[in-house]
Amino acid sequence: MFFTEMWERFSYYGMRAIFALYMLKALLFDKALVSNIYGSYTGLVYLTPLIGGYIADRYWGNRRCIIRGGLLMAVGQLFMFLSALYYMEHNLALILMYCGLGFLIFGNGFFKPNITTMVGQLYEEKDIRKDSAYTIFYMGINVGAFLSPLVAGALGDTGDPADFKWGFLAACIGMLIGTCLFWQLQNKYLVAPDGKAIGISPNITRDKSATEISEKKSGFPVKRLICWTCIEIALFLLFYKVVRFDFIGSAIFSLCLVAPGFIITDPSLSKIERQRIWVIYIISFFVIFFWAAFEQAGASLTFFADEQTDRFIGDWEMPASFFQVFNALFIILLAPLFSFLWIFLKKKKLEISAPAKQAIGLFLLSMGYLVIAFGVRNVAPEVKVSMLWLVSLYFIHTVGELCLSPIGLSIVNQLAPARFASLLMAIWFLSLSTANKFAGMLSSLYPEPNPTGFYEPPSFLGYSIENLFDFFMLFVVMSGVASVILFVLTRKLQKMMHEE
After folding, report:
1. CATH class of the domain defined by 2-219+266-448+457-497
2. Predicted TM-score (pTM) of this structure
3. What Cα–Cα distance (Å) separates residue 470 from each residue in 81, 227, 451?
């Protein structure tokens, strides 16, 4: 599981490390368009797990979804390679790029929620090692994320637009390795504590309570489906016509409300199951603010690294894409320590509750942006700042991420009814979808360092962003307020979790 996810993330982050730069330097898009496309892509990547989660729970099981998803993503990376190969033929390059993004989006939908769900199945329901297991699994994610910008960045981000194709090809090869590894080793290692194979049958067959519920009650009735479809259409039109979001943003934000509502109104849910699902929803809502700020790494923070960071180490200038390595490197170094820490605190009866851990993660995210905000304060736009400011931000964000993300995966696994295991994991990723699209919208507010001619500063809800200090302070306030509110709700959420 560790190495399969490592290679998949190698593929994803390798492509992500050079994607914005490819659009900016090879396809010659402006930053606002790059940010919107980037946000739409990363948003849709985490939207399609709703499809993969539902199919795994009801029909295919986790394993088949993972293999099919991996192959689809490999095809997607191949299309990205072909797009970069023919980047001089602009129209053809665009068609190939959008085809590649489509395969990547749907492939990830089948892959992502299912491999994450299977980690929890390796342990008994109340095993205290689950938080630590997900932290180790998260380390695998970041080994891939560490290696991929180095490889894809070194091959693709050379200053020559013709070289981007080699970065995408490396991502394609990584995805094929991960899928083959999973297919080859799945029967040997993917077994539950009782020795039974996991991930073969649909997840609904694992739910003992589901067998006691009639097919009529536990299924998705036509009336309820029609009702929520009408709500989806109404919300989509509200976002698209009234709020004036783009088509993809409207689809993501409306589904972010409808999909959770569709599940929580399932008549088969007991009162305790429903309360536990509400905890998943509430926590998922708060992590939107975390990831919307954190995912600036692939867009606005890449612009900052490329244009306004002194990247020279001696005579060598570090490629801007290499900065995405630091987060993954810090995860690899710190994940074993955090894995040990959670078990140690639990044994000493000093455990920090899961919602409190996530509130701490949000607070640290705010502090990371506060550090870099002071780093750029009173600095002239033409002056490049030390890379230590950006590295410090990534370090603080990494500590916050370890308090929030793997713990969130563990919460979903612990609280979700087995018959909705992959689907509710998809709801968790739906919050990432919303956050990534929101991140793209926020990244488009990135101020021009040296504007020429008439230039109107961007604004957000009346807040004018005149310079980088204003831009970074937006994330300080957003994540800081979310952290405080989540701290206040912690005790209530613990009661709703019904932990024994």
Report:
1. mainly alpha
2. 0.75
3. 37, 43, 16
